[in-house]
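Sequence in, structure out. Go.
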Amino acid sequence: MRALLKLSSTSRLALIVVLFALTPAAFAQGGGTSAIAVEGPWARATPGGAPTGAVYMTLANQTDASDRLTAASSDVAAEVQIHEMSVVNGIMKMRQLTDGLAIPARGSVTLKPGSYHVMLIGLKKPLTVGETFPLTLTFQKAGNISVTVQVKAMGAMQDNKSGGMGKMEMK
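Output:
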């Protein structure tokens, strides 16, 4: 602590900036030693009064046995479900995966807009850009993994190549 106090105000500011820059990487991971790695959990901001939201991430199974995401929970919503969105004959459909979501051995599943996602039902307050909230994922074999979800802009989309965020186009 004394060494930190001896730093110039410019050096202390630079150290703080570096620590804040590293913070999102820490938020993006689950337990670290788990059989399932949870990468980049994020949600879109919601307008006031919106009853639902969604959480996206990549689930990577680091074992030789398949696993299954069976449930999720969070204090931000009355109910949390695992969902799949798909387009069938030009019609967008969403359904709850009551049996959960399979995560293949040594494989991964990406939850992203227009596909698999964790549905937040009965939001207790709007999800606001820049905020974070806790989410607990329950796996059949790996057990409970708690993560911190970052709230991004309403139009955010996952960029699979860089792990960053991009814009969504409405047509």
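Check: The longest strand covers residues 77-88. The radius of gyration is 18 Å.
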